[in-house]
Amino acid sequence: MAKKASVKKSSVPVPPQFESSVPVITRRPVFPWRWVLIGLAVLFMVLAAANKGLVLAAIVNGKPIFSWQLNHTLRTRYGQQTLEGMIGEVLIANEAKKSGVVITNADIQDKQKEILSSLGTEVNLQDFLKFQGLTENDFNQQLKMQLTVEKLLSRDLTITETDIDNYIATNRALLTATEPATLREEAKKAIIGNTVSEKLQSWFLELRQKSNVMKFL
Question: What DSSP letter does each residue of 122-151 carry, written as one string?
Fold first, then answer.
C-alpha cells in the first residue's frame, strides 16, 4: 500500500490574536428632519384650508387676522363680562335645582310664541334669530334662564283678581289683548314681570355673595 504523504506543520509562527483597543466608528443614519418639517408644513396648510375658522379669522388686503388674535381680543375686552354671565347662569341653575324649579320644552315653546306674537304676525322665528344674531339653541337657552328666574322669584307671589283689575285700570294703554280672558292673562303676566324686575338685582346680589366662586381670568 502506498504511504500517505505526511504534511509537515508550518514552522512560521502565527501572531497572537488581540482584540483591537481602537473602537470602530460607524456613522449613524441622519434623521431626515428637513422632510419632517416639510411634511408638517404641508399638513398645517391642509388643515388650515379645511378648517379656516380654526386658524384664520379674516384676511384683509392679504394680511391675515388669526383666530388666536381674535380670541385674545375678545378675552381681553369682554372676558370678565362674559365670565360673570356664565357664573350667574350656573348659580341660577343650582338654585333652581335646589328649589325644584323645572322648565320644560313646552314652557320654552310657549315663551317663543309669546315673544314672536308680540312682534307682529309677519315675523317668524328664523327672521327673528337672524336679526338678533342668535342660533335657535342660544335663544332657547336664554328663554330657559329667563323662565327659571321668573319661577324662582314668583313662587311666593299671590295675585288676586283685584290686583289684575287694578293693573288693567291703570295700565290699559300698555296692554294689547282685546278679549277679556286674554287681557286678564296678559295683565297677570305683566304683574309677574314687574315683580321679578323689582326683586332681581337684590336677589342675585345675595345669591352671588353667598356663593363660593374662584375666578382665574
Answer: T--HHHHHHHHT--HHHHHHHHHHHHHHHH
Q: How far apart are CA 203 and CA 148, in angstroms?
A: 13
Residue 101 and residue 95: Cα distance in Å, rounded? Answer: 8
Neighbours of 203 (CB within 10 A): 16
The three cell numbers of residue 24 are 470602530
CA distances from 11 to 5, 6, 8, 15, 136 (A): 18, 15, 9, 12, 104
How many residues make up the chain in this entry?
Answer: 217
**Measured between alpha carbons, how far is 170 from 156 in angstroms, rounded to an integer?**
24
Residue 63: strand pairing partners? 60
DSSP 8-state class, residue 100: T
In this prediction, residue 48 carries a pLDDT of 55
Distance CA 84, CA 217 (A): 11
Q: What is the DSSP letter of 213?
A: -
Do residues 90 and 216 touch, judged by C-beta distance below 8 A? no
Cα separation, 124 vs 62, whole angstroms: 39
Summarize pLDDT for 44-84 with one digit per residue, the tens: 555 555 556 667 888 899 898 888 899 999 999 999 999 99
